[in-house]
Amino acid sequence: MQYTNYDFLTVSEAADLLETKDTYVYTLIRKGLLVPAARSPQLKLSYPSIIAYVRRRIPSSFHIALEGVSA
User: Fold this and answer.
1) CA gap 4, 42 in Å, rounded
2) What is residue 68's predicted lDDT score, i.e. its pLDDT?
3) Domain layout of the chain by residue ranges
4) 11-19, Cβ contacts within 8 angstroms, sequence gap of 24 or more
5) Please, what's the b/e burial string for 53-66 (b: 16 or more CB within 10 A of its CB; e: otherwise)?
6) pLDDT-flagged residues of the chain (< 70)
7) Backbone angles phi, psi at 46, to 5 degrees
8) What three-state secondary structure class fits 9?
9) Are 49 and 13 in contact (CB under 8 A)?
């Protein structure tokens, strides 16, 4: 699925995007590495915050191209 900077993802959608399990996304939230944009009635994460997390995790010497995201 193609996301935009205005999209908010559920924990399950974020886990799919990160290719991990929901429980790991909850761990990232608990550790403060991902900050939910909304908490009611369910947690929502902004697409830009997920991309920022991924970029922080990749060494600066690596160059990646994320589909639909400009550098």
Assistant:
1) 20
2) 63
3) 8-57
4) 11/42, 11/43, 11/45, 14/45, 14/50, 17/50, 18/50, 18/54
5) beeeeeeeeeeeee
6) 64, 66-71
7) -75, 145
8) strand
9) no
